[in-house]
Specification:
- The chain has 325 residues and is of the alpha/beta class.
- The chain has one domain: Aldolase class I (TIM Barrel, Alpha-Beta Barrel), CATH 3.20.20.70.
- 38% of the residues lie in helices and 18% in strands.
- It is built from eleven helices and twelve strands.
- The strands form two sheets. Strands 1, 2, 3, 4, 5, 8, 9, 10, 11 and 12 form a ten-stranded mixed sheet that branches. It has a two-stranded antiparallel sheet with strand order 6-7.
- Helix 4 packs across helix 5, helix 8 runs parallel beside helix 10 and helix 9 packs antiparallel against helix 10.
- The chain starts with 14 loop residues before the first helix and ends with a helix.
- The protein binds ligand PBG and zinc ion (ZN).
Length: 325
């Protein structure tokens, strides 16, 4: 007869005992902050659907980076918006490309910040798809060739880690081989392994000007209804040499994070995407939720589900709240 012998409320009596039995602790150490950098000068444009998130030109970037460093957020994830787009996204492997210039600027001025680069083509192609087109679809193997050029160029500019997000088959192997051949054996790969074809990316595509000009991404990103397929994608990426695997989006995919945590030993990153951010901001603005509490509760849920790393536009806000506590 459990009750009245067992009373779980005993361990909820006050904050001290709650701290002692808390199973999950969110930390600044878990956070990665995504940053949008646009080619040009004097640019600091707020993204309409993402309050407090801006597109910066390099000359305006310091304000943001000062804050990130001061808050001791360990890493940033860079997205570039080039001045010129073309059919293949050649800015991605240009030595004077937006990401290459950004990496050099950050390394020079913020040597302690860990730089992860998003490796894809959709912000750099006129058609907005994540690679080279052939018959109105992305040509997998042709895209791999350009991806190799892109990562080598990021590595040469000084990137600490590369994160391929295009969902091309064999991309991890292609990148690992290319990096190793050039002597970058120590640069890890964070694979966007279980990246779903999600409507939650809407605000990001406004921010990065990467909406596909025709069709959608369902021939390369995963079907939201699938879970076993996530296990298959992750096993392939680990076999190919992924150091960290990712689930994206995060909130609607906690079961995927949890399943992968129980199946694999590698670190798992959860990408709390733009649409998830926008929903919280919108409800907060309307006064419908306690925004700060919802942000912490959600981030804690990612960790509880099994994520080691949380990539989030809320990173600065979370770090501030954790510092105050
Ligand atoms: C590019 C990329 C996307 C995101 C990260 N990298 C967009 C997409 O696949 O359309 C989404 C990030 C977000 O919504 O916050 N491949
Ligand atoms: Zn893409």
């Amino acid at each position: 007869m459990p009750f009245p012998i067992h009373r779980p409320r005993r361990l909820r009596k006050n904050e001290n005992i709650r701290r002692l039995v808390r199973e999950t602790n969110l930390s600044i150490d878990d956070l990665v902050y995504p940053i949008f950098i646009e080619d040009g000068s004097n640019i600091e444009i707020e993204i309409p659907s993402m309050p407090n998130i801006y597109r910066y030109s390099i000359d305006r970037l310091s304000k943001e980076l000062d804050e990130v460093s001061k808050l001791q957020i360990p890493a940033v994830l860079l997205f570039g918006i080039p001045s010129q787009k073309d059919s293949v996204g050649s800015d991605t492997w240009n030595e004077e490309g937006i990401i290459q210039k950004s990496i050099r600027f950050i390394k020079e001025n913020y040597p302690n910040l860990y730089i992860i680069t998003d490796v894809c083509f959709c912000e750099y192609t006129e058609h907005g798809h994540c690679g080279v087109l052939c018959n109105h679809d992305v040509d997998n193997d042709a895209t791999l060739e350009n991806t190799k050029k892109q990562v080598i160029s990021h590595a040469k500019a000084g990137a600490d880690m590369v994160a391929p997000s295009g969902m091309m088959d064999g991309v991890v192997k292609a990148i690992r081989e290319a990096l190793d051949e050039e002597g970058f054996t120590d640069i890890p790969i964070m694979a966007y392994s279980a990246k779903y074809a999600s409507a939650y990316y809407g605000p990001f595509r406004d921010a990065a000007e990467s909406t596909p000009a025709f069709g959608d991404r369902r021939s390369y990103q995963m079907e939201p209804a699938n879970k076993r397929e996530a296990i298959r994608e992750v096993s392939l990426d680990i076999e190919e040499g992924a150091d960290i695997v990712m689930v994206k989006p995060a909130l609607a995919y906690l079961d995927i994070i949890s399943q992968l945590r129980n199946t694999f030993d590698v670190p798992i990153a959860a990408y709390n995407v733009s649409g998830e951010y926008s929903m919280v901001k919108a409800a907060g603005k309307l006064g419908w939720i306690d925004e700060q509490k919802v942000i912490l509760e959600t981030a804690t849920a990612f960790k509880r589900a099994g994520a080691d790393i949380i990539i989030t536009y809320h990173a600065k806000e979370i770090a501030k709240m954790l510092k105050e506590n």
